[in-house]
Amino acid sequence: SDKITGLELGADDYITKPFDLRELKIRVRNLLQAIKQKAIKPRISYKGRLLIVEDNIDIATILHTFLTESGFQAEFVATGRAALEVCQQKLYDLILLDVQLPDLEGYEIIKELRQNVRTVHTPIVFLTHRAEQKDRLKGLELGADDYVTKPFDIDELYLRVRNLIQQTTHLPLDLETTLPSPRIVEEELNGLQHYHGW
Length: 198
What we know:
47% of the residues lie in helices and 12% in strands. It has 198 residues and is an alpha/beta fold. The model is unreliable at 39-45 (pLDDT under 50).
């Protein structure tokens, strides 16, 4: 209840004491990166498009139903390869990603997503049974924006998803045209100039 109250009031994260200093450092770093990517003008009518990567059909259905009824556009896939494929076709505001999938580990998937210009800035939340500290640290180190363990509180998860999307409304590609944003074009051109010594 304390977590839900804090997140409901607008907190970007909620960590309980005693805490692991390395995990705190990674969470702070990820939040600072998200703040830098904030849009100047937040979306008004667009609540968010979500991808749920979950092989447990019961959990996937619960998440899909709840998030859809909460106003998000949600869809789900059951394998890692399906997730990578659909992320090449569509843009998402956030990805809920299980670690243990039938074909690829979530850790492998996030590595590929973070190397792709379409998904390098997309918020990713691990949703997994793996609750050990080493697993949590690994997920955050690979670039996850949050790490939630099962069983989870659906209201708390909703608030974490909502807050992350509000933090990262500035995406590298325009959701309507799927063209690169001016910022991404500028960064790519600057990189080329530096590489060729222009």
